[in-house]
Design a protein that fits this description.
The complex is a heterodimer of chains A (142) and B (167).
Chain A: E1 3-8, H1 12-24, E2 29-35, H2 38-47, E3 52-55, H3 64-73, E4 81-86, H4 91-99, E5 102-106, H5 111-122, H6 127-130
Parallel strand pairs in A: 1-2, 1-3, 3-4, 4-5
Helix pairs in contact in A: 1-5, 2-3
Chain B: H1 2-21, H2 31-35, E1 38-47, E2 51-59, H3 62-71, H4 79-102, E3 109-110, E4 114-117, H5 121-124, E5 133-139, E6 142-152, H6 163-166
Antiparallel strand pairs in B: 1-2, 1-3, 1-4, 2-6, 5-6
Helix pairs in contact in B: 1-4, 3-4
Classes of the chains: A alpha/beta (142), B alpha+beta (167).
């Protein structure tokens, strides 16, 4: 199975960094979609099949917390695998996001942390089956 | 308190630049770093138990280096991406600083980064506005200045869960 991934972050540079980590992760990827805020992200979820969502919290128009609440309220997307990638440091808000079924990766993140979280959330355990990771984990640090 | 706040601001900035852009801070700026012209600044406002903003100012020479190290490809010469990279750096500094200042239970909302070209510290200050904390760091062939402004909610700095209370 190859994964369709949606990245929602208002920073084009951060989206590019996440795309780079995804490509190094060994995860089989069919397509990567990008959106700059939650409203745009919901529109894409409506139009495209998505298996994994990587979501920032602080964004204009619609933040990640509201987008995640809407995803969980919609029976078509309520089981979608979601990873929050954010600077969010409030334990109160992080606990709420985890209650909504999201895994958390804190910025700044080493690429192996994002990679390991992606593999755990997607349930992919044998990346060698799909192809070896293209870079050693200590060659990069985001 | 301001000395400790400076230390926390410095810690959040150094960690962000090292992790995201592979740039390492020097304790004192060299003559070359001090002579480098400013390229611009990014401001991120925060709202919560405290209200204020973090301003990150970088020299022109650092802008392509930051973008190149974050993106790792040839797009670093594109000015919009350079600005976006510095905006994300400011966002991360702010997001990592606030729990240190107000404790990890406090919930903040951050506005989108706001870019201004070639500003000085005085141009970035609003009327009657003085930074609570300010740090200058030498990096590569340029320098970074980061300032914390707190407009209201100074009591949040004394929260028992704050690193300032522990210090």
């Amino acid at each position: 199975m190859a994964f369709n991934v949606l990245i929602v972050d208002d920073s084009a540079v951060m989206r590019a960094m996440i795309v780079r980590t995804l490509k190094l992760s060994g995860l089989p990827i069919a397509a990567i979609h990008e959106a700059a805020h939650g409203e745009d992200g919901l529109r894409m979820l409506n139009d495209e099949w998505v298996d994994l969502l990587l979501l920032d919290v602080n964004m204009p128009v619609m933040n990640g917390e509201e987008m995640l609440q809407r995803i969980r309220a919609d029976e078509r997307t309520r089981d979608l695998a979601v990873i929050i990638v954010s600077t969010e440091g409030s334990e109160t808000r992080l606990a709420h996001l985890q209650e909504l079924g999201a895994a958390i990766v804190h910025k700044p993140f080493p690429p192996e942390t994002l990679r390991d979280t992606i593999l755990r959330v997607t349930g992919v355990t044998d990346v060698d089956y799909y192809g070896p990771v293209a870079a050693s984990s200590d060659s990069l640090d985001f | 308190m301001s000395t400790t706040t400076d230390q926390l601001l410095r810690r959040a900035t150094v960690s962000t630049f090292e992790s995201l852009a592979f740039l390492f801070a020097e304790d004192e700026c060299t003559g070359e770093q001090l002579a480098a012209p400013w390229g611009g600044s990014v401001s991120v406002e925060f709202h919560g138990p405290m209200r204020g903003r973090v301003v990150l100012r970088v020299t022109e020479s650092l802008m392509p280096a930051i973008a190149a190290n974050m993106l790792g490809d040839d797009e670093s010469h594109l000015v919009p991406l350079q600005r976006d990279a510095i905006g994300e750096m400011t966002n991360v500094v702010c997001g990592n600083l606030l729990p240190l200042l107000a404790g990890t239970e406090a919930v903040f909302r951050l506005d989108a980064p706001h870019w201004r070209a070639r500003t000085t510290a005085s141009e970035d200050s609003r009327a009657g506005d003085a930074p609570l904390s300010s740090v200058v760091l030498g990096m590569d062939d340029g320098r970074v200045e980061v300032q914390l402004y707190v407009f209201s909610g100074h009591d949040a700095l004394l929260h028992p869960n704050s690193a300032l209370s522990v210090a």
